[in-house]
Structure formats: C-alpha cells, structure tokens
Automatic annotation (TrEMBL):
Compartments in which it is found: Cell membrane
Family in the record: Belongs to the CPA3 antiporters (TC 2.A.63) subunit E family.
Source organism per UniProt: Marinobacterium sediminicola
Coiled coil: none
Transmembrane segments: none
Membrane topology reported for the UniProt record: Multi-pass membrane protein
PANTHER family assigned to the protein according to its UniProt record, in alphabetical order: NA(+)/H(+) ANTIPORTER SUBUNIT E1, NA(+)_H(+) ANTIPORTER SUBUNIT E1
Keywords: Cell membrane, Membrane, Transmembrane, Transmembrane helix
Main location: membrane
InterPro entries for this protein: Cation_antiport_E
Record's protein name: Multicomponent K+:H+ antiporter subunit E
Length: 164
C-alpha cells in the first residue's frame, strides 16, 4: 500500500474514523468533520514515534508457529490442571534464566508472550542487556530441559520467521 506523508497510517486513520462515528452513534456533519480531523491528525502526531519492526520473512512458518503454540497451550493446560489437583507440596516452583540469541524487540516480545501464554510458565523479566529471559515455572524438575524446550520450540522458529 502506498503511503503519503499526510496519511502515514491509512488503516489506522480509517479505524479511528469508524470508531469515532460508532462511539458517537451519529453521522451528523459535525461528527463527520471532527472524526475526519482526528483520523488524520492523530496518526500524523504518532508517526514519528513508530519503531521500525522486522518483517516476517517466512509467513508459512509463522502460521506453523502459531499452531504449535496453540497445541502447547492445550497440553500445558492439562498438565497444570493435573498438577494443581494433586498435592501442592509436590510442586517445585523455580526461576530459570534462559539465554537468548534474539535481539530485535518484536521477536523478543513474541517469545516472552509465548512463554507467558503457556500455562505453568511466566516470563518474569528480560535482562537489561537483552541476553537473558527470566522465566518462572510452576513445577520444575529439569532446568536444562525447560531451557532447551524454550529455545528449540519457540526461539529458533522466531529466528527463522524474522530472519534474525
């Protein structure tokens, strides 16, 4: 889609305009003019704040990644349910530092979100140098196995998807 200087985010502008009209529940001329003004002005003001993001280089791999994550979420839900229904004394919660090879913000955000979406694990923090992701696990029996799982099932595909 061709971008114009005066319309840096055309889809956002259209959405802003439609949402404005829906919120006001009116198509009166005043609402049309004000909605158009806001739809053009807000993206112009926000455009300089945009951070360039890496492009998805392998979209089919991205679809496979999403399906893998959905499957992992289902399996982890069952595992966590079984753990929680058992004795709470048997749980071994722990924090794990996962070394990272990713450097771009978007892939790192997706990785941290994926870990948090999978029941039983939560991304606790990303180190300031962005080389470590600290993960809290509800029940940890093998730290190295968790690290390898995160790196092979999530980080490696993200590196391929974004070619970084």
């Amino acid at each position: 889609m061709k971008r114009f200087r005066w319309l840096p985010m055309p889809v956002h502008s259209l959405l802003l305009f439609v949402v404005w009209l829906l919120l006001n529940n009116s198509a009166a001329p005043g609402h049309l003019v004000l909605g158009a003004f806001l739809a053009l002005t807000i993206p112009l003001l926000c455009a300089p704040l945009q951070i360039p993001q890496p492009v998805v280089r392998r979209p089919l791999l991205a679809v496979r990644y999403v399906l893998r994550v959905l499957g992992d979420i289902v399996v982890a839900n069952v595992e966590v349910a079984l753990l929680v229904m058992g004795s709470m004394r048997k749980l071994q919660p722990a924090f794990v530092a996962v070394p990272l090879e990713l450097t771009s913000e978007l892939p790192l955000t997706i990785l941290a979100s994926t870990v948090s979406l999978t029941p039983g694990t939560v991304s606790a923090e990303l180190s300031e140098d962005r080389r470590w992701l600290y993960v809290h696990a509800l029940h940890l029996t093998d730290e190295q196995a968790l690290i390898e799982t995160i790196k092979s099932r999530y980080e490696a595909p993200l590196k391929e998807i974004f070619a970084c």
